[in-house]
Amino acid sequence: MVPELDQSQLAFCRSRDENIRLLAPAGCGKTASLLYRCLEIARNARSRPRFLIITFTRSAVAELTERLINDRHFAGLSERTTVNTLNAYGYRRIRDKVRSNKLLTSKNDYHFAMLNQLRPVWQGNSYIEPVVTKRGNNARRLMEVMDNLKSMGFDHTEDTNLRLFRKRLSDLSEQGLSWRIDEQFEILTRIGVLESPKKGEQEGPATSHRQFYDRFFTFWRKAVQNLLEQSTFTFEDQKYWTYLELKSPGPDGKRRSYITGAARYSHVLVDEFQDINPLDLLLIKAIADRNRAKMTIRRYSSGAARHPNTYCIPITISRHRSKTTCCKSTIDLLKT
Predict the structure, then answer these.
(1) Is the Cβ–Cβ distance between 298 and 273 less than 8 Å?
(2) What integer pLDDT is reported at residue 16 of this predicted model?
């Protein structure tokens, strides 16, 4: 180990807990600790471990990769470490499985995908067709709500009835994501898929959930499957379809461990965990499960991640180099 690590960071790097979470304010060296944990694991491993580090921006990928390649402390670690965003990880799997896929990247792509490719799904639907065919951006908004449901963890292969739909809503509420649910209700009401309560009427959750399910969710399930069959993907699908593929059983009905010939990762490490949504968490866990890998999470201490304590042991860095501390140090320096 190197002298720049304090005792709390060393405790994280040397911990024998298989699934572990690192908590600290900004500027405390969480990312460096993540890499040094990889180094410590590699030094003490009997076999040759492989690491997958998941982060959420391309700039973070570039920073971590540059440090792995150019920092002498990590010599030899870069060849057994892959740094990816979840989107890049997912896109690579989709590309390998579906050679002639179409990626929707713009507002116009969304508009015409709904208008043309999904016509067989919405045509004749008394709730969706009038909204799609109305002039304006309703078609794109419907596509965006479709993506939002995926990011919230809805699964078109599992949430197949009203009871399961309501259970998913309940799970989201428990995670503090009721506001995301409300957003989708508001969008669909604004564009005319759902009806607002009439003056003097009060619509309870059960009634509004049933209306959402009947008027949009059943359409959503068919539309999502239709786009898959046409090999058409959004950025959110890069994660969604990868998650579905990873959790699906093999030909023998048993859950597959990892793809033959693919690099098997012994450890999955997540940078900036507080930035995830429910789909991200499902995908990360699916990657770890498929590879039978141990999981390490690094996150800012005030983030609102989705219940990581259920599978990760938390460790807090005691050294504080937050923005407040840095500003105070700067002021003290100017005064001297």
Answers:
(1) yes
(2) 82
d(CA 69, CA 91) in angstroms, rounded, equals 24
Structure tokens at 189: 């009401």
Amino acid, single-letter form, for residue 175: Q
| Burial group, residue 208, by CB count within 10 angstroms (0-12, 13-18, 19+) | middle
The answer to whether the Cα torsion of 209, 193, 101, 58 is positive or negative is negative
pLDDT of residue 290: 83
Give the single-character DSSP code of 115. Answer: I
Q: How many beta carbons lie within 10 A of that of residue 189, not counting itself?
A: 16
Here the tokens at position 146 are 């479709």
Looking at residue 203, its pLDDT comes to 55
pTM: 0.81
The whole-number mean pLDDT for each consecutive block of 10 residues of the chain, a chain of 336 residues, reads 72 82 77 87 86 90 91 86 93 86 94 97 97 95 98 96 96 92 95 80 68 97 96 96 85 48 75 83 89 68 41 44 42 48
Structure tokens at 199: 């003056």
DSSP one-letter string for 6-67: -HHHHHHHH---SSEEEEE-TTS-HHHHHHHHHHHHHHH-SS---EEEEESSHHHHHHHHHH
- The pLDDT of residue 29: 79
Burial of 98 (0-12, 13-18, 19+ CB in 10 A): middle
Question: Which of these, 81, 89, 54, lies nearest to 245 by C-alpha position?
Answer: 89
Q: Which residues contact 171 (CB under 8 A, 6 or more apart)?
A: 153
Rounded distance, CA 42 to CA 28, Å? 23
Q: Token digits for 44? A: 């003490």
185 Cβ neighbours under 8 A, 6+ residues apart: 194, 208, 212
Question: Residue 78 and residue 80: Cα distance in Å, rounded?
Answer: 5
Residues with Cβ within 8 Å of residue 218, at least 6 apart in sequence: none
Q: Which residue has the tokens 């700039």?
A: 59
